[in-house]
Structure formats: structure tokens, C-alpha cells
## 1
Amino acid sequence: MEQKQYTSKELLKRFVPYFKKYKGTLCMDLFCAALTTVCELVLPLIMRYITNEGMRDLAALSMQTVGRLGLLYLVLRIMDGIASYYMADMGHVMGAKIETDMRRDAYRHLQQLSNTYYNNTKVGQIMGRVTNDLFDVTEFAHHCPEEFFIAAIKTVISFFILAGIHLWLTVLVFLCVPLMAGVCMTLNFRVKGAFRKQRHQIGELNARIEDSLLGHKVVKAFTNEGIEKEKFEKDNQKFLDIKKESYKYMAMFQTTVKMFDGLMYLMVVVAGGIFMVKGLILPGDLVAYMLYVTTLIATIRRIIEFAEQFQRGMTGIERFLQIVDADIEIFDEPDAVDLYDPKGDIVFENVSFEYPDDHNRVFKRLNLHIKAGEKVAIVGPSGGGKTTLCNLIPRFYDVTCGRVTLDGEDIKHFTLKSLRGSIGIVQQDVYLFSGTIYENITYGRPGASREEVVEAAKRAGAHEFITELKEGYDTYVGERGVKLSGGQKQRLSIARVFLKNPPIIILDEATSALDNESEFEVAKSLARLSEGRTTLTIAHRLSSIRNSDRILVLTEDGIVEEGTHEQLLEQKGMYFHFYNMANQLK
Ligand code: ADP
Ligand code: MG
């Protein structure tokens, strides 16, 4: 998916509000930063004083003065220690809290994003964005204000102190700073580009690995390990190339800085030496210059090291914003109301639909009325639009034209939560969360009592096999848990829907992946489930839908036949054809 790119200004503008909650900590952090800086800046002044006084008249320099200066320095260092501790502890905690807030925002947004987003975004990429990319933000959030603040006050204060000693020498030395800043900023731009590419490629690599791990059975069955390895190698190599590029820019950056700080020392040694020989400055002044330039260079070095962190952080923020700025395509209309006690009368009125990213029209002016409590089955060729039709009712996608109504009201007038809350869906693939069987069933209605869960399992035909398991309802399922058969999983998913107890049921090829015996069991559960509810059944095994109130044949041209099983057989059309084909297969 095409991702928006942000300028540094935009990134900072969006990031700064995250500090709002932690204003106090931030101010304290900056205060501590100022304190440590001042402590550091006092040392050259003390050295300058001692040197100049000693050179002037060694005998006049009393032990008492030295002692007092020593004590002053000791106090300063203790304050420095406390301030540094605060910065390292609370400063980092603030960064971590901001990271947590951002991750929460990203997660919330991800939950609202529509199927279209997930169809077009690799899970590996999203995972990277909400984990690793945000780690970098912690460091950034803490160090960015602090380091820039320290650098700024250090540069300004040392400039004024040195200018007080000798203006022209100071101007000469400081001339290097803007020059260096200019070159660094240009290079920084390249470094940012390289980091952006790096992050993207890590996401690609994650996605690639995830894909081949999830599909490991298919890989093995087709002995395509070689091909997978090749694809992986390609992405891995690409990652290396991008890393090489960013190291190249980082190296250029660091070398430039080194050259400039060499230049600053050179100024002090040569120009300062000349000034001293000419008697314009004292030896203590030269010592102070040397020490200040050393601190300045150390600061600049830190900023340079931080530049990498800075760019990582900025890239992290950008990748975060790309998530939170992704369009929520399906949302509650401003005047949406809760759907109360729905009957389940569904009407498609002149519905046209095409997938947002693929302008292939799936439906054109489709009309369909499903009465409350009616059992409607949809059959038709694969790709005819059966699943799509069902997805429009819970608004997994919104119609392009026309409208879908429930009990006479456009479904867009209802809140998503209440609309989806009144629809139960059983699909071919069952997703069980890591956790116990019990937890997986209560997913249908969190907060349900144990009795209700057992009752739902009984009605879904799952109670028997659950109680046969060693740990019964508390058996773990999912990645590390017990392996259930397809039919058993499907009955758990039906139990979930029983617990939810919605008035509308959608069964999308719920038995397609099952063997005959499981199918028989599951079909019984489904029949119980659909009792007294509006039911839409998509099935490619016609046996399970014979008793539907109405059968629709849906093809790319829309609903081409409609009627009961007997009526459709009489028509000798497409359904008749399907039916005979299915019988021949038997
Ligand atoms: P059925 O369930 O009848 O097999 P679908 O509703 O899955 O058919 O698909 C109907 C048409 O929509 C097909 O042409 C299919 O390629 C297309 N389609 C399905 N899902 C998507 C999607 N997420 N994005 C774009 N096109 C899709
Ligand atoms: Mg389908």
C-alpha cells in the first residue's frame, strides 16, 4: 500500500502533543539537564582562575582558596550526580510512557481499520511498526529534548564566557559551528532516507519469514524449501544493501564532524598560541579555551551519535503515523443509534458493490428481501459473490450504491457494535485464540456464566467431546494447546454464536472443510442454531440446504434463479444442473 511520507516538521508537530501529559517530568528533566551543564561549565573557569592566579603570584594563592574551590566543585558534582540520576531514570520512564501511549493509539486505530486495510497490508509490517519501531521512540522521546537543550545552553554559555575572555578568538573558533551544522543537516537528510528504507525492508523481511513459517506445511509438501530460501535470501540481501547505504552516510557524517572538531582545536592551538605570545590572552585563558572547546566537541559528538537515534526515532514516528492516519473506512455515522431488539428483516435495495482497491464490480443493482426468520440459502459458482453479499450485512464492507436495510432502516443508521452484535457468523475457517476452550466459547459473550457456556456447548454439540478431554473446558487450545479436529473446532465456533444468541445468522461454507461424519454432526448443530433466526446459508454441498425456505442462485450476473428446492429442480436451470452434477459425484 502506498504510504504517506512526512516532513520532519510534520513529524515533530504530531509528536510534541505526546509530551503534554508529562509536562512536569519534562520540565524537571530539562532543569536537571541545565544543572549538569552548568556544573560541567564551571570546571574550566576554576582551572582558569587557578592557573592565572598561580602564574601571577604563586605565593598569593592560598590553600584556603584552593580548598574553597575544591569544595565548590564537590558540591557541584554531587548536584550533577543527583540530576544525572533523575534524567537517566525518570527521563527514560517518561520516554517509555510515551511509547506506551503511542502503541495504545496505534492499537486502537488498528482495531477500527477495515478489512480493506488488512487485505492490503502485511501483518509483518504492522507488527514491526507497533513493536520495534516504537522502541526507538522511547530513546528519542527522552533524549531529543534533553540533548538539544544541553547542546544549546552549552554552546550559548560557553560562547559568552569565551567572548568575555577574548572576542575575536571566540568568533574564530565558533565560526566552525554553523559551517558544521550546515554540512551535517544536508547529510542528515540522506541518513533519514536510508533509515526509512531500512525500516520498510525489516518489515518486508518479517512478512516474508512469517509467510513461510505459517505456510511451512505447504512449503514442505511441495518441497519448495529452495525457492523459499531464495526469496528470503533476496530480501535479506536487500536489507544488507540498505544497511550498507545508511552506514556509508553515517560514516560521511562522522568524518565530517571529526574534521570540523580538528579545525576547532587547530584554531585554539594556532590562533590562541599567537594571541598568547602577543600578550593578548593569559595562559589560564588558553587552558580555559582548550577545556571549553573539549566540552563543546564532546557535546557535538553526542549530538552526532544522537543523530542516528534521532533519525531512528523520526522514522519510528513516521511509521506510527502511517498507521494512525490510515483511513477508517467503516465507522459509526454521527447520528447512528443502537439497534434494539432486531427482528431480522433484511433488504438489499439496488445494491451495487465493488471492492475499493479493485474496480471489478461484484454486484450491479441487486435487489433481495430476506424476511425475518426466513432461511435463505445461496448457491452459485465460486467467485459469484456469495461471501461478498454476506459481508455487506455486518458492514465489513460498505455498499458502493444503493442500501441495505434491517427492519426497514438503513444499516448505516445503527452503531457498528449493535449491528454486528445482532449477527452471528460461522465460517469455513475457525479461528481459536490461545487460551482455554472455556475462554474461546465465552468470546461469544464475555461475562457469561459457566452454566450458560456449558449450555451453549451442549446445543452446539460440543459438550460431549469437551468433557472427554482430560482437562475438560479448561483444556488449552491454539498454538501450544491440544489439537482439535476441524469438526470439533467448528462446533466450538458454533457454541460461541449460541452464546452470543443473535437474531441473524450467516453460515459461510461452514461445513465445507469437514469430512462426512463431522459434517453430519456440525450440520445438526447448525440446524439447531438457525431455529427461530433469520439465516443465510452459503453451501456448496446442496444436501444441507434442501430444506431452506428459499434458495438463490447467485452468479456474476446477479441472482439468476430463486425458489424452493423443488421449484428450482422443476425449472431445470442452473440449480438443476448443479444438483445433477453433485449427484453424479456421489
Ligand atoms: P464467492 O464467495 O461466491 O466464491 P466472493 O464473494 O468471495 O465469491 O468473490 C466475489 C468476487 O469478488 C470475486 O471476483 C473475487 O475475486 C472478488 N473479491 C473477493 N474478495 C475480494 C477482495 N477482498 N478484494 C477484491 N476483490 C475481491
Ligand atoms: Mg465465498
Note: The longest helix spans residues 225-277.
## 2
Amino acid sequence: APIEVKKIVCIGAGYVGGPTCAVVALKCPHIQVTIVDVNQSRIDAWNDPDFNLPIYEPGLVDVVKGCRGRNLFFSTEVDKGIAEADLIFVSVNTPTKKSGLGAGFAADLNYIELATRRIAEVSTSSKIVVEKSTVPCRTAESMRTILEANAKPGCRFDILSNPEFLAEGTAIEDLFAPDRVLIGSLQSQEGLDACAALANVYANWIPKERILTVGLWSSELSKLAANAMLAQRISSVNMLSAICEATGANVDEVAYAVGKDSRVGPKFLKASVGFGGSCFQKYSLNLVYLARSLNLEEVARYWYAVVEANDYQKNRFAKKVVDTLFNTITGKKIAVLGFAFKADTGDTRESPAIDLINHFLSERARVTVYDPEVQESQIMLDLTDYGAKPAEPIQKAVTVCPSALEACKGADAIVVVTEWKEFVNLDWQSIHDTMNKPAFIFDGRNILKRQELKNIGFKVVSIGTGDRL
Ligand code: UDX
Ligand code: UDX
Ligand code: ADP
């Protein structure tokens, strides 16, 4: 029979572990939830008396306020947390390998393995171990092997895969009402019992029919598949945007018409400057690597094309800016609005803004940047590739501004990279007055009111429309 879960520990207080387990604590007041991390400053931020949490997510502060100190705790005492728990979420980072076999494609499982070995070492009672980080297929199997080889007598470990599908910016909404929760387990009695124990935790707030239970490997593959298929939709619509620009069709009209087909559906068909974020590219490339390692070269090539198309889209957009500005941006001032990879987040991982600004800098433009949620220090880390490039020339060419108005002052062109709502209703007339003429706007998200801007006198370039300027 399934055990009743009373204490949960989550290893890793990052983007996934933090919000996920905070919501578990909020919704399950009878369960004690401890989130542990080796990173002291991150834990300190989660414990901040003024709730300046380490990540920005709408609604997150209220969740943490609702249960921190009651049944939600943040700590660096990893071993103690593990020893006390009956269920362990492993939510550590799985970055892409930078060297060795599979460099650039495969996930680096070092952190998972270290955490797994730690669990084996300090556990003196049986545990359900839940793989929450996204990992390649069969990682659960490796974790099981490590745990079983190192288990103390009388300790058994049941491994579950429970991938997280939340999107940043809507993490709390997604966690409160997910489309589905997916739990993978071995199909043995013990595996099914462990699965039921975790399902019972989620059943505190999620309707039973949304809790899907499948085999371990289906669960692991589903996470990669979901991300790769969403990325594929965006690449598909972006590749149509290039055709629209060449023909005079309008990609928003095309996407709307296509999405009305209930077999296709309307979501994730917004043409853009290219997708960013820590997930789409990474998991598409993980899938490419998986296919290659299974000797499925055609399959690998199919998924690789999704990422290639995204690179092409980013490049195409950067080139269009240069072409439109009479083939040179040397010494010109380009105002970049938005640096986060999407709206409502301060996250900049794989943001298209990074590639675009690098392109503008290589053409020796001056760049101003404004983003409501991204700090200057983060922008500099991204543009210097975390110190790999010398900071001085970048600091000279790039100015981070406290407002959109400030960033646009005296610019030759404005480039909208992130779809922050506040950009739609800026005082565009005043901005136009301060700019060099002709004043160009490149709308990388198709969010601006094109006709109004044209009436003011802007030359407007959107994604996926032949009707230019
Ligand atoms: C298709 C479009 O559906 C229709 O809107 C358009 O007007 C004409 O082309 P059709 O070719 O008649 O219609 O059949 P459809 O049901 O779309 O199936 C096309 C092929 O895809 C079939 O071979 C079908 O077996 C296959 N298919 C369909 C799959 O392999 N998997 C699926 O999930 C769906
Ligand atoms: C994604 C998945 O949506 C989520 O299920 C998974 O758990 C993690 O990866 P996330 O990366 O946080 O979430 O954000 P998402 O909303 O999916 O956007 C990813 C990127 O695609 C962003 O850069 C976004 O701007 C872009 N995008 C999204 C488009 O360009 N067009 C669209 O139609 C949708
Ligand atoms: P994700 O987006 O997957 O949540 P993050 O990088 O935001 O990834 O968070 C992962 C967290 O896991 C980091 O804060 C890191 O310090 C933590 N971590 C990694 N390995 C361990 C470990 N062995 N024990 C405890 N915490 C760990």
C-alpha cells in the first residue's frame, strides 16, 4: 500500500525546485516541506525577511508568505533534510555539457549523480526519490543503480520521474492548475505504490484525471518531447514569417487561420524574433543527442532543424535591422527594449536579446537597453559571456537605462525584443520627437500598434509582413 508522505525535501532551490515545492507546501499544510541547496546566498534570499526572493515570478511572494516558517523551510543543511524526509525531489541543475562526449548537446548529469550519491550515503530509512530535473531517458535507471549499490541495510529506494512543465512568468498559475501532472514509475508493485504516494500529494489540489501515471521511460521522454514539439511550432511559424515577408502575406493572419483548425490549435503560434529560455533549445538538443546515440541520424536531423531555424530567425532579424538602416549601423544608436527571454520574467537565459546585441556590437553600433526586470549586472554578465569576453569595450558601447523613454532618447532605431506590456502604450509621440529621423522601430514581437506608430511618423518593421515601413 502507498505510504503517507509526511516530510518532503527538495534538493535544489532554483527555478524549478523553489516555486514547485513552495506550492506543494501551500497546498498541503499537513506535509513539512524543506528546500535545501548548497548555495548559501540563494537560501538566504529565499529566507529574506522582506521577501526579496532569488527569482521573480508573479504570485510567488504570496505563496512563500503563506507558508514559510509554517510548513515550508529553506536550508543549506542538505544531509539533515535528506535524512528526515520520506520523499525527496531531486531538482538540481542539468546544464548542457561544455566539453567531452556530447558537448553542446548532452545534459551534464554530474549534479544529479552527486545528489544521488548523497542520498544513498545519508539515508537511514527508505525513501521515494523523485527525479524532477529534466534529464535524458534512463537517468532514473542510473539513479536506481547508484542508490541500490550504496544503500544501507533496510533502506529501499523507489525512483519516480515527475517532470515539471511550468513556464516561467506563469509558474504559480501553472502549478495551481496544471494541464497535467505526469508521474513515471516502474510497473512493479513497489513502483506503483510509490507512484500512488506522490499522486496522493498532488491530489490535494489537482483533479485526479489530470494526474497521469505512466512508465518511467515514457515520463522521461515526454518532457523532452513536449518542449521540442512546442519549439517546433514556433520554428514552423517563424519559417512561415520569412515567406510572408517575401510575398506580402501577413504571418499573424496566417497563424490565426491555421490555429483555428482544432487539430492544430491556437497556442504557441506567435511569430517572433526567435525563442529563448533555458528549455527549448536545450531539450531539443538533448533529443538530438539521444537520437544520435541511438544511431537514429534522420531523427536527430529532424529535431536539429528546429534549433537551426531559430538561429536563422534571430540572424535574419538582426540583418534586417542593419539592411533597413541603409546597410550600416556603425556609430548609430540602437535602443533595445526588453532583455528577458520573454515577458513577466527576469530570466535572461538564451534570450534572443543577447544574440541581437552581439550582432549590433559587431557592426560597431552603440546600444542602449531597458528591461523592467533585468539588472544591469546580469546584462553585463550575458554580454561578456560570463567574463569570457573583455568587459571594457562592451561597457563603452552599451548603456543600460532606467526607463524605455531614457533608452530611446536620440536613438536611430528601436528594437523591441521582449513582449513587455508596457511597451505597447509608451508615449510614442514624445519618443519620436527625440529620435534621429527617419525614426525606425523593429517590432520583434508584433505587439505594437503599427498604424498609430506610422501616423506619428515612425518607419515600422514587423515580423512576417511584406507591408514594410
Ligand atoms: C488532409 C487535411 O486533413 C485536410 O484538412 C485537407 O483539406 C486535405 O488534406 P486528408 O489527406 O483527406 O486531409 O486526410 P487526413 O485525415 O488529414 O490524413 C492524411 C494522412 O495523415 C493520412 O494518411 C492519415 O492516415 C495520416 N495521419 C493523420 C497520421 O498518420 N496520423 C495522424 O495523427 C493523423
Ligand atoms: C517552456 C515550456 O513552455 C514549459 O512547459 C517547460 O516546462 C519549460 O520550457 P518557458 O521557456 O518558461 O517554458 O517559456 P515559454 O512560454 O514556453 O516561451 C519560450 C520561448 O518561446 C520564449 O522566448 C517565448 O517568447 C517564445 N515564444 C513562445 C514565441 O516566440 N512564440 C510563441 O508563440 C510562444
Ligand atoms: P533549474 O532551472 O533546473 O531549477 P537552477 O540552476 O535554477 O536549475 O537550480 C538548481 C539548484 O540546485 C542550484 O541552486 C544549485 O545550487 C542546486 N544544487 C546543485 N547540486 C546540488 C546538490 N548536490 N545539493 C544541493 N543543491 C544542489
Note: The longest helix spans residues 216-247.
